[in-house]
């Protein structure tokens, strides 16, 4: 992460080199914030800052449109609504997230600029959900695999795929999306069963879906549920 001051505001951004990029461009997304995408190896760090300053008005206008995290917001954890509580600590050295009952409590430094504050909250929440996923998902895969007699399960990795909840490689390695920690446990179980069934059928043939139905009879309910775009907070 890099930072630059634009019109008195401290802005956090990242630079990504792309072999496909023919010219530099900016983009803002809920997941990555402000990104400067540049042709690989052709733009210097000084030129990065020049480009950003030339687009100051556009950057500040579009960053203001990003929904902010505020005390009282609701975030989902394992399908349960949790209230967000932001606590500014004057002497705080790092940002922490703690779950207490139905509250997600974030402690962060009190003197953060507005843009940096939101970036800090976003990263802290993403890291917290990822840590929860690393503890919960591999253990649940092991439990379900043992319960239903799936063999050949390889490594379970936690990733942040944009378009899928999970995947299974030909070697039996499972990749699961950390954003699953926002949905109901039964939906998580369906995704795990879905991927485990690929150990037997590496396709989505009728035989594959028959296997899924054998281990998760109500799988169609969970397929419909997981298509709801509101399950995952767009800011994460």
Tell me what the structure shows.
This protein folds into three domains: 2-64, no CATH class; 74-130, no CATH class; 136-231, Zincin-like (2-Layer Sandwich). Helices cover 36% and strands 27% of the residues. It has helices at residues 45-54, 56-64, 114-148, 185-197, 206-215, 219-226; strands spanning 2-6, 9-18, 25-29, 33-39, 74-77, 80-89, 96-100, 103-109, 156-159, 166-168, 174-177. The strands form three sheets. A four-stranded mixed sheet has the order 1-2-4-3, with helices on both faces. Strand 5 (74-77) and strand 6 form a beta hairpin. Helix 3 (114-148) crosses helix 4 and helix 4 (185-197) crosses helix 5. The longest helix has 35 residues, at 114-148. The model has no long low-confidence stretch (mean pLDDT 90).
Features:
Zincin-like; alpha/beta; 27% strand; four-stranded mixed sheet; 236 residues; 36% helix
Task: Give a quick account of the main beta sheet: strands, pairing sense, barrel closure.
Answer: 4 strands, mixed
CATH superfamily of the largest domain: Metalloproteases ("zincins"), catalytic domain
From the alpha carbons, calculate the radius of gyration and give it in angstroms: 21 Å
Spatial arrangement of strands, main beta sheet: 1-2-4-3
Q: Per CATH, what is the topology of the largest domain?
A: Zincin-like
* Averaged pLDDT: 90
Helix content: 25-40%
Number of helices: 6
Mind telling me the CATH class of the largest domain?
Alpha Beta
Order of helices and strands: EEEEHHEEEEHEEEHHH
Helix/sheet category:
alpha/beta
Name the shape in a single word: globular
Beta-strand percentage? 25-35%
**How many beta strands in the DSSP annotation?**
11
Which regions have little confidence, pLDDT < 50, spanning 5+ residues?
none
Number of domains: 3
End-to-end separation in angstroms reads 17 Å
CATH architecture of the largest domain: 2-Layer Sandwich
């Amino acid at each position: 992460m890099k930072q630059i001051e634009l019109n008195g505001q401290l802005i956090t951004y990242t630079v990504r080199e792309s072999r496909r990029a023919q010219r530099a461009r900016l983009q803002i997304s809920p997941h990555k914030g402000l990104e400067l995408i540049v042709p690989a190896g052709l733009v210097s760090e000084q030129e990065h800052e020049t480009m950003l300053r030339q687009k100051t008005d556009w950057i500040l206008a579009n960053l203001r449109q990003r929904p902010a995290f505020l005390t009282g917001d609701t975030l989902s954890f394992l399908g349960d609504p949790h209230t967000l509580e932001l606590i500014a600590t004057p002497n705080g050295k790092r940002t922490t997230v703690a779950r207490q009952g139905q509250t997600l409590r974030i402690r962060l430094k009190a003197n953060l600029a507005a843009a940096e504050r939101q970036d800090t909250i976003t990263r802290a929440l993403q890291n917290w959900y990822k840590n929860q996923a690393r503890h919960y998902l591999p253990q649940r895969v092991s439990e379900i695999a043992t319960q239903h007699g799936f063999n050949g399960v390889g490594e379970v990795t936690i990733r942040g795929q944009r378009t899928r909840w999970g995947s299974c490689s030909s070697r039996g390695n499972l990749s699961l999306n950390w954003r699953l920690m926002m949905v109901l446990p039964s939906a998580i179980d369906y995704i795990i069963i879905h991927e485990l069934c690929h150990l037997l059928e590496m396709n989505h043939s009728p035989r594959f879906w028959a296997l899924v139905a054998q281990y998760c009879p109500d799988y169609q309910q969970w397929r419909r549920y997981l298509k709801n775009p509101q399950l995952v907070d767009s800011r994460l």
